[in-house]
Amino acid sequence: MTGQAVLAVDQGTSNTKAVLVGRDGAILARASRPMAVAHPRPGWAEQSAAALWESVAGVIGDLVAAAPEVEVAAVGISNQRETAVLWDAATGEPVAPAILWQCRRTAPRCEELRAAGYAAAVVERSGLGLDPLFPAAKIAWLLDTIPEGRARADRGELRAGTVDSWLLWKLTGGAVHATDLSNASRTQLLNLESLAWDAELARIFGVPLALMPEVRASDSRFGTLADGATALPAGVPICAMMGDSHAALYAHGARSPGEAKVTCGTGSSLMVLTQQRAHSAHGLSSTIAWAEGGHVFHALEGNITTSGAAAAFATQLLGLADEAALTALAETVGTSDGVCFVPALAGLGAPHWNSDARGMISGMSLGTRPAHVARAALEGIAHQIADVFEAAEADLGHALPTIVADGGAAKNVVLMHLLADLLGRAVVRPENEEASVKGVARMAAKALGWENQTAAPATTFQPRASDEREAMRAEWKAAIARASFAG
Hints:
Number of strands: 23
Shape: globular
Strand order of the largest sheet: 17-18-16-15-21-22-23
Strand content: 15-25%
Helix content: 25-40%
CATH architecture of the largest domain: 2-Layer Sandwich
Number of domains: 2
Number of helices: 15
CATH class of the largest domain: Alpha Beta
Largest sheet: 7 strands, mixed
CATH superfamily of the largest domain: ATPase, nucleotide binding domain
């Protein structure tokens, strides 16, 4: 053996990544496999649950083949959040597609619950507002849709969970049905005070709690790999599980209240640690960041439905070859010349929470050119993050001095400059392309007693002095109001 390593998997919406991380924190090997998303109806988004598992088994096999001399001491899992999976307890096979976090099919059910007066109780207990993003209504929808779904659930034939639970079940050969507190806190079924499944929330949403996994700390020993489950030998322990956004914050070394990051991916997540549970009055969610070493870390979070996906949409809309061409085009103009691009392509998430809002390009004139639209698309991504940042500062009652950025869209230098300018704050971007997977690898390593807290080099984007910031923010807020009215 040349040494020991942690194998960490990040199962995401667009791809599944995995890395081997040595005891010193160095990445020894990488693997990645793309994932497909289906949109069977407008507003719906789903993936094959079987394909999710196959991609994870596949990247594990790729790493074992790439570094056969490395001894894997533990496995860690980070995952796309709020995606619901339902499977057969006996066969371990999914009984329906996985309903993605992006999916809006349960919007009518959420509105019914709101009309029935449950919104305040749901927020008080779960920390999360009534929105189709969260899994509780999705699980109920599945039970009501698949043949004999509720009858099978009553007979104990089904299991439900988020992606981490599904992967853990497969990795352990069905021996363990568990989740961690970070993922559980995103289901809308966990009580943030008791840190346990809540019977009243289960009643409101119509989800039998017998379906749900056991809730554990994020650094638990969740089980061991089953014989033949993957290319790894049986008995390798699974020592950490976290939602991907939480794992990214952990990777950046955040451990103190007020430390914040934004993950810029298909959607975006801004998360800031809090001293204890914080009750948002400005459209954010209260959540569990992670539980480690017997301590529960709380956070405020704002979820933006469409971020990097907005750049992809604008690229296609303008007939450009790729997103690099979009950025290059945006750089040819100094401003968007009054054009606003509101990327409410699947409604608006935090802090607005308007499922009916529609995407909109406004402020065009005879002088508008494609370059102005391209720049406005990038500005729209930055404006949405600024909305959440301002909401977090309002909830905390103090300014946030800086923010760390990660995720695929954070590689865009123009976007990072725009974000710093609109926030009026420094934006720090670690040169770390795999924040989520590195975060869960770091937690698994710590659970083994390893210390590999090596800091990644970073680029800092300082805000440029501008008299236009207030005017741009005012134009944006007016455009948001129009997009909300259009829905």
